[in-house]
Amino acid sequence: MDETISAADANREFSRLLRETRDGNSFLVTSHGRPVARLVPATEPSQASRAAKQILLGRLRLQTSANAGRWTREELYDD
To answer: What is the top-level taxon of the source organism (predicted)?
Structure first.
């Protein structure tokens, strides 16, 4: 289960949190009592995940790019 810690405390104790996370612990960071982030140990991608990434990248390399024409920034972000 995640240990809950406020954002202010997490900021002050970041080095400790990193050490504990490296050791397998996880933390739920809150701001004004609301969850905003989770600090969890990093994991290596699985063999299946690496294979799926390679398949996707291979398919993307084979696709031709679409000619979308030119547009202005205003047209791109028009509401």
So the answer is: Bacteria
Total number of domains in the chain? 1
pTM of the model as a whole: 0.56
What residue numbers bound the domain in which 34 lies? 3-39
Average pLDDT over residues 34-59: 92
Residue 29 burial (CB count, 10 A): 20
- What pLDDT is stored for residue 79 in this prediction? 63
What sign does the CA torsion over 55, 61, 63, 69 have? positive
Start-to-end C-alpha separation, the chain: 43
For residue 10, give the CATH number of its domain: 3.40.1620
